[in-house]
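Q: What changes when zinc ion is included in the input?
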Amino acid sequence: MRCALCGWPRDETAVLSTHHTSEGWVRYRRCACGAVSIELVTLDDRRALRTAVVA
Ligand SMILES: [Zn+2]
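A: The predicted holo structure follows.
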């Protein structure tokens, strides 16, 4: 996955925080361009299923 705004590889962006939920973990990341994205990481495969840019 890459940043929707600048194309920076999302794996290299800074993790702001991670929260455990019933579905897995919700991880907030902030890109070098300032965009914040949310990843849902599940217990099953531990990879991001969906992301959303929120800022
Ligand atoms: Zn970016």
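Observations recorded in class: DSSP finds no helices and four strands in the chain.
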